[in-house]
Structures are given as C-alpha cells and as structure tokens.
Sequence to fold (64 residues):
Amino acid sequence: MKEPLRSKYLNSLKGLLGIPANNLIWLYLNKGTHEESDRDDFDPAEVNRVLNILLELNSAMYVS
Fold:
C-alpha cells in the first residue's frame, strides 16, 4: 500500500475505533436491522460522519 493511502486508511480506521462502544451511533446503525419502537430516530449528522469514514476506509483499501 502506498504511503498516502496507508495514512488515509489508518486515519479512517482510527476514526472508527475512536467512537466509544456506548455511543448511540452503533444503536443507530443496528436499528435498520432490528425495528424497536423504544429507540430514538437516527441522528443524520452522526450517521453521515460514520458513513464518510467507512467510504474513506473503503477507498483506501481498494485503490491500487
């Protein structure tokens, strides 16, 4: 992996790993799998933040 891509990959990975386990984002992402009436609706800003990190991580992994 080229150095710029390696740095991008590691930064994205650190972004995901830096989100605490008790953060609601993990419940938001799970809500689409299990419909539960007692869960709050999605916070679009939080979901977009994680989605952008995942997209960066994906692009760093699959660029040759």
